[in-house]
Amino acid sequence: MALERTFSIIKPDATRRNLTGKVLGALEAAGLRVVAQKRIRLTKQQAEEFYGVHKERPFFAGLVTFMTSGPVVVQVLEADDAIALNRKTMGATDPKKADAGTVRALYAEDIEANSVHGSDSPEAAKQEIAFFFSDAEIVG
Fold this sequence. Notes:
This protein is an alpha+beta fold. The chain is about 40% helix and about 20% strand. It is built from 7 helices and 4 strands.
């Protein structure tokens, strides 16, 4: 196994319901370590740029509106095989299909308001981390 970093967002539906600590607890209980974290409110421009890969998809405008609807917690997580471990801990994007005990099965409201985002590849993790954090902000 290789020590790696991944990017995570605790989304507005979870912060609105004061679930930040519970979500973070689940991530840490799974073996992920927070090496950078901040609570921010995404601007429309940031959300459009961050989710730009989905710009042509029909859900893009709704996604931007949702992600700018309240504060989020962006974070860098570290562990052996952190990307796969985080994705397993989050559960399927659709909470109805998420395994019992995963973050999305426990806390998501629906497929859009699904409480968390996580990088899906090493390339995405590197890009997403750099979007929100400087090297100096990551304390390993």
